[in-house]
Amino acid sequence: MATAETRQKPNILVTGSPGTGKSTLAAALAEKLGFEQIECSKEIREHGLFSEFDERLQTHVFDEDKLLDHIEERMDSEDGGVVVDFHGCDFFPQRWFDIVVVLRCDNTKLFDRMAARGYPPEKIRENIECEIFNTIGDEARESYEEEVILEVPSETIEQMNENVDKVVEMATQWMQHRH
């Protein structure tokens, strides 16, 4: 079982409300750093890692244990170098991540993004409330050490590019301190 001390490259978690740009940032980081990307929502859909379908929210209710079991081998690798993106963060083992990025977004922009995706009104409302109360940021602070968390705005292409640069710099520094 790998730890921060034994991993060659950092594992990175990108989290935030739906529509904040998690998958986009994770893909850019994976490409720039040469890391593997695990898009949890896609893994859940493609591998049936859910327990039921919530008709009201029009979404699959993922099974935490099935997801964790599904990605555990990749996350516990001595190589590291995995970028995970998901809208939740408090159920992952703390030891899996060396950098945790929390994306934030203005509620109006977030509303527009979710509406454009065709989300039902109830799902939009719940996600906007999560963003207003910074639920995911709070989860991250309760689950990980403050020094590994980077909470950043994700509203524009410029901010996305800045976020890529910041996280690449953090990952580079992490690797330099290991060798």
Automatic annotation (TrEMBL):
Keywords: ATP-binding, Cytoplasm, Kinase, Nucleotide-binding, Nucleus, Ribosome biogenesis, rRNA processing, Transferase. It comes from the Eukaryota. GO terms for molecular function: AMP kinase activity; ATP binding; ATP hydrolysis activity. It holds the Pfam family AAA_18. Coiled coil: none annotated. GO terms for biological process: ribosomal small subunit biogenesis; rRNA processing. It is found in: Cytoplasm; Nucleus. SUPFAM superfamilies: P-loop containing nucleoside triphosphate hydrolases. The keyword Cell membrane does not apply. GO terms for cellular component: cytoplasm; nucleus. It catalyses: AMP + ATP = 2 ADP; ATP + H2O = ADP + phosphate + H(+). ATP binds at G19, G21, K22, S23, T24, R117. Residues 116-126 are annotated as: LID. Residues 39-62 are annotated as: NMPbind. Its EC number is 2.7.4.3. InterPro entries: Adenyl_kinase_AK6, P-loop_NTPase. The keyword Kinase applies. Belongs to the adenylate kinase family. AK6 subfamily. Broad-specificity nucleoside monophosphate (NMP) kinase that catalyzes the reversible transfer of the terminal phosphate group between nucleoside triphosphates and monophosphates. Has also ATPase activity. Involved in the late cytoplasmic maturation steps of the 40S ribosomal particles, specifically 18S rRNA maturation. While NMP activity is not required for ribosome maturation, ATPase activity is. Associates transiently with small ribosomal subunit protein uS11. ATP hydrolysis breaks the interaction with uS11. Monomer and homodimer. Interacts with small ribosomal subunit protein uS11. Not a structural component of 43S pre-ribosomes, but transiently interacts with them by binding to uS11. PANTHER family: ADENYLATE KINASE ISOENZYME 6, POS9-ACTIVATING FACTOR FAP7-RELATED. This is Adenylate kinase isoenzyme 6 homolog.
